[in-house]
Amino acid sequence: MKDELEKVHQVVNEIEKIIIGQTSLIWKVLTALLADGHVLLEGVPGLAKTLLVATLGKTIGGAFQRIQMVPDMMPSDIVGTYIYTDGKFEVEKGPIISANLVLVDEINRAAAKTQAALLQAMQERQVTIMGKETFQLPDPFMVLATQNPIEHEGTYPLPEAQLDRFLLKLLVNYPSREDEIHMLENTLLDRRDRLADIQQVFSPEEVVHLREKIKAEVKVEEYAHRYMVDLCRATRNPMEYKLDKIEGKIRIGVSPRGILGLRDVARVQAFLSGRKFVYPEDVQRMAKDVLRHRMILTYSAEMEGATPDEILDHVLSEIPIP
User: Could you tell me the pTM of the whole model?
Assistant: First the structure.
C-alpha cells in the first residue's frame, strides 16, 4: 500500500497550500474519511473549517455541498420533497443526495427533527422522501458538522444518542503566531477562487477502494481488541479497573459503537504509519477524538470543572498497555 500512502501525503500537501497551521486536523479528517465515518468539528468561527472541507472535496474529486443550519429549517430542506409541476408530483432531491462531502454549518442551530433527519441519513447511508422513494447516498459519503462552543442562545444541543453517530469529535484550535504570519504571506488566500491551484489526487472510487483495502489488509490482533475494550469499559465501571480517581464522575460511559469506532480509526492510523498491524499507539493517538463525545459526566463532576478529556487522560495513563 506504499503507493496509496504516498497519494494520501499528496492530498495533505494539496490541502496545506491554503489551510495553514492545521496539519493535525487535516490528518484526523482524512482518518475519518478512510474509516468511513463522520466528524463533528467544534471551534470558534474563522478557523477555515468550511475551506478545509471544500479543499478536501476537490482533492478527492468528490461533490461538495454546504448546508447552513437555521432554526426554521425542515427535514425536507436536507433530504428533499415532492413538488407539484405540470399536473404531477416530481421529486426535488435535497442537497445531501448527490454529495460526497457535506459540510453542515452550526448543526446545533437546527431543530431536533431536522437534526434527526440528517443523522438518520448519516447512519443508514440512504434517505426516504415522504415515505415513498428511497435514495442511496453516494459512496464515499461523509458529513462534517460544525458546532460553535461559545454561542448557546437559539441553539438545540445534539442529544447524546445522536452525538454517538459521529466517529470523531475534533476540537479546532487557533493556529500559532508563525502560522498566522504565514497566512498573510500566502498569495493563494488573496484570490477569489482559492481552490484554483488545488489538484485532484484521488477519485471517489479510489477512496472507496483504499478504504476497503485497509479493512481487509490491516490486522487487529486480539491484544489490541482487549486493550480497546478495556479503555471503553473503564469509563463504565471505573472500580473494575481500580480507577478510584474517576469513580462517581461518569454518568454514562462509552457505548459498544465507540469500541468499533476505535478499531476503525486504529486501522487507518496503522496504515498511515506504513504498517499492516495495529499497535497500542494507534489506539492511544485517536482515543480522545473517538471517545470524548460518547461520555456523559455527572453533574457534580461538571460543577467541579472536570472534562471528558481529563477523564480519558487518566484512563489512558492507568490502563496497562499490552
Answer: 0.91
